[in-house]
Design goal:
Length: 130
Amino acid sequence: MKTLTTWVADHQFISEQNGQRISIDGSLQKGMSPKALLLSGIAGCSAIDVVDILVKMRVSFSQFEVSAEAAQTEEHPRVFTQIDLVYRIDVDAADMDKVKKAVDLSLEKYCGVAAMLRKNSPIGYKIELI
């Protein structure tokens, strides 16, 4: 895996991978902060896993989102001390056990971002029906 991150101005950068671009901005004016990208990374990584697992389980859903929030230390470097994920899904209530199994498999076995972040920060989650 390789990326290229190029300074634009002030705290603004463009990061590229395989022709895809994202904006990074430490001042939060024209892009996400690097730590927000970490949270987006764990949410996206796990969400992809969950979708793949639910499709294999033949679980139908019409909406799905993952929110991520992290507590941080007060002193620098301000590292994450806890990461909490909320999976919101529009699924039949009878399939909630399958959704839980998919989330557990993602966070414990498949999501590499979760595996890396878990080495420093506990990861908790809950599932909500939309």
